[in-house]
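Deliverable D4.2, example record:
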Amino acid sequence: MTHPLLDLAPLTAAHFAEIERSVAALMNTEQDVVIMQGEALLPLEGCIRGGAPRGSTALNVVTGPYGQTFGDWLRDCGATVVDLTVPFDTAVTAAQVAEALAEHPEIGFVSLVHAEAATGNTNPVAEIGEVVRAHGALFMVDAVASVSAEPLLTDAWGVDLCVIGAQKAMGGPAGVSAVSVSERAWERIAANPDAPRRSYLSLLDWKERWIDAGRRALPHTPAQLEMLALQACVERIEADGPAAVRARHAAAAAATRAGVLALGGGLAPFVRRAAEAAPVATTLRVPGGMDARDLVTTALAADPSLPLVAGAGAAAEVMIRVNHYGPAATRGTVQSSLAALGAAVAARGGRVDLEGALRAVGEAFTG
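Output generated by the structure prediction step:
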């Protein structure tokens, strides 16, 4: 018996290259794009291990847990790491980056997360890109959460290594990702004797065996289902219109923030300024005396499909994340999430205004 997900014709090199071109257009780049067969941590680690040579100095901007991970990788590469850490309820500024670069003129690599879904903040990549470009360092941006949720102008912002994944705002699978690589990034990676070679982490292998070889033969068997799903994601975004998809995510974020402020009960936005809040997820600070994990457990008991997660690490007790990205960037999802959280808070003695919250959500979505 045939099966539509199993009995598929082989994915040709031409088809793979076609998907690659569509992803490049989504990223607004004319740089080389490599689609890697794994979750986005694969190209992110490949970029760091290739772009930060042993003995070099890197500026690592930390606005959440992924920035912390990048710092660990950079140190493991043998780089001297300057961590620019800001409170997770805010965003970094271009001025802060410029100050760090001025204090450490030897910095040759800068890593930054565009939108930290885990902490709910988003960083001003355009302004930071100007500062990094003037300094001359390689600029790596993790745009996994931001792609399709907010503008991503890879070339215009001077991003040398830009990594995306399909699993957030694109509404696709986690098992495939992509990275754009500038010409000067290729040059610096090639000059790094410790850059991964003959390795699954290697960007240079893709360049040699795929890009430089004319994209005629794939280096290895592609993850076919994930590649087809990636293509479907891009096609759906193109059909809906990228601006409309971004607007839907912005509305979901604004509605969640407005709804929480109207709901009361001690819940409050974790990211202090709305302009620094990511459109993919809204993080909430829980009332004193309550545990975020308990509130999420209660809310999910009423509706397990809700995109609610307690914070991780030190934030596990005090933060709740509402993941309104991809298919969840809707009025219904936001209203249901706030209703369930409101009920959980009320069950613990908090005074909430559910009608006011739902009204605020509706107003945010209708403009």
